[in-house]
Amino acid sequence: MGVTEDELAEFRDRARQWLTEHTGAPVPPEDVATAKRFQAALHDAGFAGITWPAEYGGQGLGQREQLAFNDVAKAFDLPVAIFVVGLGMCGPTLVDLGTDQQRSRYLRPLVRGEEIWCQLFSEPGAGSDVASLQTKAVRDGDEWVLDGQKVWTTVAHLADYGAVLARTNPDVPKHSGLTMFIVDMHAPGVTVRPLKDMTGRAPFNEVFFEGVRLPADSVIGEVNGGWSAAVTMLSHERVSIGAAVVRRSDPLAYSVLAATARDRGVQGDPVIRQQLAELYARQRALQLFTARLRQEAHAGIAPGARGSVAKLVGALNQAYAVEVAGSVAGTDAIAWEAKNSAAAERAVGMNQAPAAAIAGGTSEVQRNIIGERILGLPKEPSVDRDVPFRELKVGTQR
Ligand SMILES: Cc1cc2nc3c(=O)[nH]c(=O)nc-3n(C[C@H](O)[C@H](O)[C@H](O)COP(=O)(O)OP(=O)(O)OC[C@H]3O[C@@H](n4cnc5c(N)ncnc54)[C@H](O)[C@@H]3O)c2cc1C
């Protein structure tokens, strides 16, 4: 028997009350200590890991509570950005595929924000076609030895652990010889270097592995079953990116841009009104669509390729929001008084927005998936599916 309406209303009230007392002005991304304290307190209050199993530190509740919490949280600024990869991708993958020992060891500190996780898939020669990756792990007695380079790794500079995808058998076709491992980001042989994006911030990194030793029990899922583990993680990623809570102070949120239009006295402009109405409709439609995907997931219906719809629409909405931001802010979008922190935040948001069409799989790739798996269009030609990886010309392999 699920939660009753009364219980759900009480849960919402409790969440609203707690968030009112424990959140305030946005916390700057570099303030890791405050973010960690917040996440632990959120867990103690019963609002972190809402749908995760109780024996592994979750709250053991359902999707309805999760949706209710997300809905309430929209009105607040939660300093949880550094935990998004762990909570939205690595954790759910461990819940699905981890051994009991892995779940007992890693999930509780992850959900409490005590340990930060990153996802190490992309490489300089393998992004959209991630199955072409060249980082390798070679078995040596009871351990594996990891060598290679990853790139664009979000929060690697703060991470304690990562989920890394490596090649464990080059003699079979590219999708068949991969394995996913848990890697200790503080282990000898791991080097993390920051990469700046066009906002001037460095949210991601390049990561080098040189002879990093991984214990045999660090495999997530099956040896050489890494592709299926990666697909599991990417499906969580697409829903979680699409569903990302629009923060109260998100400079590209409908409500923030509408307030800017009022402040600048342009809310009566018919073109701007039209744009704001369209942005509201698009952002709201995506929220409802991802809410439905989550409810269905709870009922045992996998999001499948519809996760790609959420991801694609999220990126299109971001691009449209940049256009609307340009209209409502006018010349303030380009140059502003130093004391105008809202304009500075908006500029950061506008410069970050294009990443939404790349991170987590590009919009072109999402369109391919939607075309093939939802619309039933012909598959893209693939000439290398049955060729042993060793014989392919990919990355630096010639
Ligand atoms: C902000 C941000 C954060 C990220 N965080 C992480 C992270 O934490 N961990 C991680 O592993 N990676 C991360 N990435 C990397 C991301 O997953 C890759 O950038 C993405 O998969 C694209 O790969 P690529 O950059 O190598 O581009 P490429 O794959 O080289 O693509 C180049 C261009 O070709 C197009 N293209 C490629 N293949 C096709 C095709 N089959 N059909 C049509 N067009 C195609 C692409 O759409 C793109 O326009 C992050 C990226 C960004 C921007």
TrEMBL record:
Acyl-CoA oxidase/dehydrogenase middle domain residues: 118-212
State the UniProt keywords alphabetically: FAD, Flavoprotein, Oxidoreductase
Q: Under what name is this protein listed?
A: Alkylation response protein AidB-like acyl-CoA dehydrogenase
Entry-linked SUPFAM superfamilies = Acyl-CoA dehydrogenase C-terminal domain-like, Acyl-CoA dehydrogenase NM domain-like
Report the superkingdom from the record. Bacteria
- Domain named Acyl-CoA dehydrogenase/oxidase N-terminal is located at 6-114
Query: For the Acyl-CoA dehydrogenase/oxidase C-terminal domain, which residue ranges apply?
Result: 224-375
| Organism whose genome encodes this protein | Kibdelosporangium banguiense
UniProt lists the family membership as follows:
Belongs to the acyl-CoA dehydrogenase family.
Cofactor list: FAD
